[in-house]
């Protein structure tokens, strides 16, 4: 503990130079913008910045990369809230509650609350990273394919909560998502599925799907309904955009829960922040005393996933720093950067190059504080920017979506995918098929499938592997309990239903 | 206001840093080069390409920016499809290892090594058979004597790790249960946590864990002992005739112009002669230097294709 503090102090000392602070400042801003643009997420942001770091001192270079990484997590929420177009995968859930708030004229509040939650989540994650990284890693690696499979199943079970009124339609959407996710190469069998075109060997890019399904379909919907966003009166007073005490209080507990969940899941190699945000949302909805508010701008449903999202960033850095194993796309590129800087990632990294790593961690601490302030201060800018372009909003969003789609792979193929899923999303919405279950199935079913096959291969054909391992068994029991409670509740509701009508 | 000015300065500085310094050819490359890794970041392909990109850019071997992209999946099949999608465009350079030959043989992807333009082989690296230091398996004899079917971890399906595993199983005369993982990082994690009994992996991914004495290498797949790991006995000296090393090279898309091919070959040759490359890539990743130019590499690939086709057919992996 004390050791960590001494190292951190040395790290902060190394970071507090005008040059490094400027680097962190710029990195945070670039990350915010990159995260906000549909199609550009943490991986592309870090990859874009990588060549810039070559001439820099190691600490500054790593601060630049981690600053961009953290910044994208702040930025992803901006377009989700403003125009219902998630900038990257972890921001999908933010759109579910954030965009309705925007439509109700509470967009500034949504941006403010989510900035604060992001900060708290990030801080929580950093504290764990600073004090418990080695301990956490020792436990995290003992989770194997069976645990990951069960975790995916728990994630998929949140479909029940995202389903809305019509469960059959939700299941159809889920199966459609599962089908879409099977396109492309499969590393367990080595076979390629449904590759009618060479481009499909890679499968359908998940980000192209969300850009179409959310961004473009929203435009189609708005054109049909002639929706006008309630943006209120033009105002540049910061005071009006800083969240009030009551809203902050409402978001406090969900933020803490989201931080815990996001950090825990972010640490697990491969699971990533996307699943953390969905689970955090589902948890809040389950715990809420006003579940009917969810989907219509519930602060709890906004705060918790945002905190989870940002807590996952330092979480994903833990296996990278302690073992040299990346837990997400963004950290994977950081790994490459460490090697290129001449460091040797792996179990010896902290011993051999501790000063650089602690400098990077200190940079994250400073960057997180900076991002909170810049993101709150920038809210009036975003809101007023949207007000200025409102009459041309449809064209602007379509432009952003198509450019974002192109930038995914520098090919027109993804532009077609975005257009197709724009129409699919519009039709789903028109006929009230929920998009949440669809997108969740697209993300989780391929992971579930691979972990399931690996589990069965590890056990050499025995299903017992899912109940023989303590953590896997715990997850199985948790699932069983959730289902049992859900069934009992349902029966209880049926009993109460006619009675209440009689009275 | 102050913030804005600071930001402007910093952005201007960043742009200045990114500007190209010298120009080598007039019309090619007309934009940045893209290095394509067929596996997830942190794996062998990725580390090689990122180190190459860094040395090429720092040494100003070419003037255009280089981006490394990862196209993982299907034991390299995804990256083959991706590169084939850019046929005739010389701006792409892909890492090619054994899976470059084996994946087209094992999966019906409608592509093979002939669809691409060989540029250079940069080195070879051996496969190691590794156990967790706490494992009861202390030697190949223990593996031969094990009473149960052992779980073996490796990267991808039908790749070199699986072929080595299958050859070893055949030599032992017993069944081994091979489990494909998505990346070298996942394979290493699986052994760290004892989820598998042993792994077949390359020294680049597992080397640090040998240093910390968390892993023990029981055998190496080279003809003679490696200079960098002199304590590790070969399969051969322990009585198992397995000599199959991963090769590391680069290929470009098919049908590219002769000038583009020459440009890329020249770029890679210059890179391979730098001290920085020897020091920060070959030595660090324990790769043996074994440079081949475009024509020799093409001939080598044809040979390897034959070797793999024969062994995979023999082992029943392909019909």
Question: Which tags fit this structure?
Answer:
heterodimer; A: 503 residues; mainly alpha; two-stranded antiparallel sheet; 2 strands; 1% strand; B: 319 residues; alpha/beta; D-Maltodextrin-Binding Protein, domain 2; 2 domains; six-stranded mixed β-sheet; five-stranded mixed β-sheet; 41% helix; 20% strand; globular
Measured between the Cα atoms of the first and last residue of chain B, the distance is 70 Å
Q: Give, in spatial order, the strands making up the sheet with the most strands of chain A.
A: 1-2
Walk across the major sheet of chain B and give the strand order: 2-1-3-10-4-11
Low-confidence stretches of chain A: 494-503
Number of helices of chain A: 21
Helix content of chain B: 40-55%
Strand segment tally of chain A: 2
Q: What would you call the quaternary organization? A: heterodimer
Average pLDDT of chain B: 85
* Number of helical regions of chain B: 11
Write down the Rg of chain A: 22 Å
Order of helices and strands of chain B: HEHEHEHEEHEHEHEHEEHHEH
Low-pLDDT residue intervals, each spanning 5 or more residues of chain B = 12-25
Alpha-beta classification of chain A:
mainly alpha
Mean pLDDT of chain A: 84
Overview of this protein structure:
Chain A folds into two domains: 2-468, no CATH class; 477-503. By secondary structure, chain A is an all-alpha fold. Chain A has 21 helices and two strands. In chain A, a hairpin with a 6-residue loop joins strand 1 and strand 2. Chain A is 75% helix and 1% strand. Chain B is α/β, with parallel strands linked by helices and 319 residues long. Chain B folds into two domains: 9-125 and 247-314, 3-Layer(aba) Sandwich (D-Maltodextrin-Binding Protein, domain 2); 126-245, Periplasmic binding protein-like II (D-Maltodextrin-Binding Protein, domain 2), CATH 3.40.190.10. Helix content of chain B is 41%, strand content 20%. In chain B, the strands form two sheets. A six-stranded mixed β-sheet of chain B has the order 2-1-3-10-4-11. In chain B, helix 2 (44-58) packs antiparallel against helix 10 (275-283). Chains A and B meet through helix 2, strand 1, helix 14 and helix 19 of A and helix 1, helix 2, strand 2, helix 3 and strand 7 of B.
